[in-house]
Structure formats: structure tokens, C-alpha cells
Amino acid sequence: MKSLKERILRDGKCFPGGILKVDSFINHQMDPILMKSIAVEFVRRFASEPINKIITVEASGIAPAIMVGYLLELPVVFAKKKRPSTMENMLSTTVFSFTKNRSYEICVSRDYLGPGDKVLFIDDFLANGNAAKGILDLAKQAGAEVAGMGFIIEKAFQHGGEELRNMGIHVESLAVIESLDNCEIRFKQQ
Ligand code: 5GP
What we know:
By secondary structure, the protein is an alpha/beta fold. It has one domain: Rossmann fold, CATH 3.40.50.2020. Helix content is 32%, strand content 33%. The strands form three sheets. Strands 4-3-7-8-9-10 form a six-stranded mixed sheet. Strands 1-2 form a two-stranded antiparallel sheet. A two-stranded antiparallel ribbon has the order 5-6. Strand 3, helix 4 and strand 4 form a beta-alpha-beta unit. Helix 3 crosses helix 4. It is globular, with a radius of gyration of 16 Å. The chain starts with a helix and ends with a strand. Bound molecules: guanosine-5'-monophosphate. Guanosine-5'-monophosphate binds next to strand 2, strand 7 and helix 5.
């Protein structure tokens, strides 16, 4: 997606350890016009998939997910990172975050993810694929199907995308970064 790549080159900031910061338009301050274009592109790329629900993980996935849900007129569920004391029928799994270097639990109620659901997972970044694998686990526990996974930015040098595609999952990433070596953003030719 050309406009997204241009924005990443203009406003993205590299940090040591292969981290890209996009706080001025995705992860802290958000650009709703760009977010809408991102959602339109996801809708186009997943047009052939039967989907009845969008799923994401709080917090950064919520903005793109709600835009996709709005366009498709489908409900959006986000996996919570804190176990609410009042949540019943809960499914949970553990996810390792390499940016925070610790594991955390994500959970979702069986009331909102169950057999017969065909979900599209939307998230901001795909790195090692741990959040995505957590969603696959929650879907499996719920008896739901993952129809596809869409990411705004994929860091191909961390191989989560390769693993998910090898599992036969329909993965779409709107900007694929091949390398952040020497703090230079290099996109994969798509
Ligand atoms: P994964 O679970 O695929 O290893 O990592 C994806 C998650 O980690 C995303 O939900 C995102 O929040 C975070 N993440 C991974 N890499 C980056 C990065 O380079 N920049 C930012 N801002 N978040 C990242």
C-alpha cells in the first residue's frame, strides 16, 4: 500500500532491536484518514473470505479493526489483556511479547467467540507472530475458524508471517519491512 509506505518512511522511527515506532499516526496519535484507507485495503484483500466477525487484541489493534468492522458492518471483538473479575465463560491463552520481553495473558468471553464464527484477525504489527498464535489458540478453544489475518505492518525479518503462511493461513500485510538494519527502513518489493 503506497500511501502507507510513504507515511512510514516520512514519520516512522527506528529503534535498536528491530523496533519501528509509528506513534505519530498509528500507535499513539492516530490518523483516521489513513486508518480508513488501511481498512478499505483490508476489505479488498479479504473480499473472497467468508467472515462474520473481526477480532483483535487491545489496544493498538482496535482502531484498524473497528474501521474494518464498520465498513463490513460486522461486530468487532478485542481480546483483553487483563482478566476482568466479572467475565464469565472466559477463554484465555498466554502470549509472549518481544517488545516488552514478558508473557501476558489474553482472554475473550465464549459469549463473543464460538463455534460457527469465521473471524478475521486484524492487528497493527506482525513480528514473531505470537499475538496471532494466541488468537489461533483462542479460536481453537472456542471452536471458531480463522478466515484470515491482516496486519498494517509486517516485519519479515522476524518470520512470524512465514510461519503463519506455512500453516495455510491467508495473511495480508499492507507494508512489509525486509530490514531495519542500521536504522534504515527497507521494504520488501511486493
Ligand atoms: P508478534 O506477536 O507478532 O511477535 O508481535 C506483534 C505485536 O507486538 C503487535 O501487536 C505490536 O503491538 C507489537 N510489536 C511488534 N513489533 C513492533 C514494532 O516494531 N513496533 C511496535 N510499535 N510494536 C511492535
